[in-house]
Amino acid sequence: MSGPGVTQVLTWRPEALAELAGQWNRAAADLQVRADLIDRTVVGSAGAIRGVNADAARQAIGPTTTALRQLCRSLVLAAAEARDAAVTVTGARDRVLAVVSDATNEGYPVADDGTVSPAPEPSALLVACSGGSRSAARQMLQARATELTRLLRGALAELRAVDTEAARAIESTFDGTHPGPPAVRPAGAAGDPVSAWPRMSQDSIAAQIAAMPAADRQRLIEQMPRQVGNTDGIPWEMRMAANRINIASAILDERRTLDVPEAAKLRAAVPLTLDPADAERLWAALNADPTMRAAAIAAHDRAAHRRIAYYESLLADVPDPLDRGHRIPRQILAFDPARESLIEVSGDLGRARAIGVLVPGLNTTFDGSADDLATARRFVAGSGGDVAMISYLGGRFPTGSLAAGVANAADARYALDMAPRLVAFSEDVERRAGRIPVTYIGHSYGGSIVGTAERFGLTADRVIYVEAAGAGVGVQKPEDWHNRNPAVLRFSLTAPGDPISLVQGIPFGSHGADPDQLPGVVRLSAGRRLTGTPMAGLSAHSDVLNEPSDAWHNILAVITGDRERIRTR
User: What's the pLDDT band for 190 if we cut at 50, 70, 90?
Assistant: First the structure.
């Protein structure tokens, strides 16, 4: 037997992996402070120290800071893998301990290799249950010991596999910390491979990447992750790998806020608009009162802590939609905090027979899209894995409560900004999907985004306008849509009593016509809830996607192309 035995497993502390993750995060922050200091020193010397030797010194120090920053990212990624390992190894260890506990409680000796032996003699009760036959009782003991051996050795094998995979995943995060000679030029330099991407077609970008040796593609991911992770036409596996680096970099960016000296944090707590005398009194109080000082520092750091926690969740494994006991990496196709762009795949693209792209609506935020992701995963689970879903946040969405939210949702600029990006992304999805049908689901304000994208040339096999704000900016009739697929099928679903119906298709409205009323659009039935009551009213606006009701099954049937299950009005 290779790997840990029972005796060793009894002493394991997988929670130490979580402690190690914290140490690695702190080490990454400390290294970044030093790298920033080196950069400031070198750049700051540009005006004071001149000449060939000075330039040579600055060129020589460049690779050092580059390597330091690469190590910082690797430490952050290793910390993420260690946190995942703490969860999976703990679960596997506990399954071993559970079998050991059952065996010992029943009086069966347990060997270090997982062999469980029968008790020397059957109990009087077991003999009685065996009809008074000691021979039959011993056979029952042997059968139980054999079963416990099978269970324990299986649990040990699973623990060994989980432990080995965790070690491999952690080690892999440091693979790029000692790169060879650069194979690509810095971004923006003459002849670098990414500078022309904004002017190139996606097919040309894909061809350029396909012609690269594997080692050059890996170096491109490591050296230019922002461009690789957010450019349509790049193979999706490369984008996902690059975006893990981008997320690690975002964590380190937030760490800079936390690493600001306390004096600077206290100065930030004194509003510049204060009267000088009041500002002086507040400054004195902050320095004299430990409670005020701690509160000011916590207020300064609060947003950064929240964002770090969110970014760490993007690096963490999540339950498999088809097997909640199994955890899988997140698949992020775009990550750009500055543009508030986050695109994520749920499900297995390799086995999926249909793809859905979900575009959400009002009050969707870059760091608050967990509900939309959960919706996508429910469709994956509900299809038994036949569907892969893509959650699409291609930029800022309108936000606000009550009247402010309604007013913001009437603004067409969010749709006009995001629609061209969705059009470009749909071309990339089509390339990846091949013959697999792709359905775009626009919910609420997302309906206007999808409709506007159709006007600009979206490529889709099917489109569903779900409780949609409209058919798209500038769309008043079907001829205003210019989907690149002439055979596209369009559906709409609006539950009775949803207030969205009050703004759909209003004259001079910003989101175009009511998709429910346009010729050629198939109206889906909202049907009934799980309780048997009609799917209707204010809550139906979101429940049609969140509750496994008739409406939800109707949407899933459209995505999968199961025409017999589609119910229309």
Answer: very low
